Structure formats: C-alpha cells, structure tokens
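Lecture 7 notes: from sequence to structure.

We start with a single chain of 199 residues. Read the sequence below before looking at the structure.
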Amino acid sequence: MAIWGYARVSTMQQNEDRQVVELRPLVTTESHLLVEKQSGKDFDRPIYQSLKNIMREGDTLVIKSLDRLGRNYEQMKEEWKDLSDRGIKIRVLDTPMLDTSKYDDELMGKFVSDIVLNVLSFVAENERKNIKQRQKEGIAIAKAKGVKFGRPAKPYPDNYEYVINEWKEGRIKAVEATKLMNVSKTTFYKMAKTTKSVR
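Now the structure, written as tokens:
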C-alpha cells in the first residue's frame, strides 16, 4: 500500500517547488513523487496516466490542491470516481475533507468525498457563469460608451473609387481590381458591396 504524490504545473516556466516540498515527506519514497508540466484541461497527460497505471488497490494518491489534479470539474468527478472504484485512496492537502485515506469505512470515505466534490463542482460552475455574466455586462457598458470591438476596418486604398468604378463598368475584372488595390478577393467584394454608387 504505497503513497504516491502528484505535482502539476501548467507550463515549463512555472515552478512546482511549493507542491514538492509539501508532498515529499508524505510519499513512500522519492521515486513515488511525480511531477508533470502540462495543462490540466484534461487527463490526457503522459505522467499522470503512467502513475494511474502503476497505482494498485489500497494505494493513496496525494495532491496539493484539487486543481492540480485537473481543471474540468465534470472530468475530475469522473476521474475521482474511477480511482475510488479501483480502491485507490485520495488525499487533497488544501481540502482536508477530501481525504478518503482517513476513513476506515470505504463507503463513508466515498460518501463524504462525493458530497464535497459536488459542492465544489457547483461553486466552480456558478463562478464560470458569473464570469460570463460580468463579461457580458462589461461589453454592454463599453459598447454604450462607444468602444468598438473586433479588428479595426481596413482603410480603403486611395484608388478605391476609380478601381471600383472601372470594375462596375466592366472595363476590368475582379482579379485585376484586387491587384490594383492590393486587397484580398473577400475584402474587395466587401468594399464593392458597401458601395452603392461611385462617382
């Protein structure tokens, strides 16, 4: 019944020392502490998957905080359930309630962790909705103040009216017109569409 530690940071530039310092005294041996530098957007991480394959029933997985395991709460709940179903205990240092290793009764451990995970999932989802709502409100206020969003419109070339007129009169083709104005075909047709009349 080994104790494994898993530390994760999202990029090569980030430092995992703080996690390692807390996990090192808790693992069975130094080789039982694995560090991964990869995004937590999903569980398709080579080091984590290797660790998952190595762990056996009765082993304990220790992480510093829940977000070190992953970022997607729905996926995390599934992953947590999968580990628990395999008889692997989980300990989250920053959330003592999420420590199934302290329960002799396996059923009680799963019951408590399921409750906490559902609460955390609700909080995370609610926060995501709040962030989207704040963004929406911020954009509405900015638009009301006249702030423009998106890429600025490309300025019309100096020879724009002349070239459009030549094209509309059939004296040149669109391909030649785009070259004369040094614009893409899409931009050219957008310009032509917004021009109702040319001198």
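The chain is about 50% helix and 10% strand. Keep this in mind for problem set 3.
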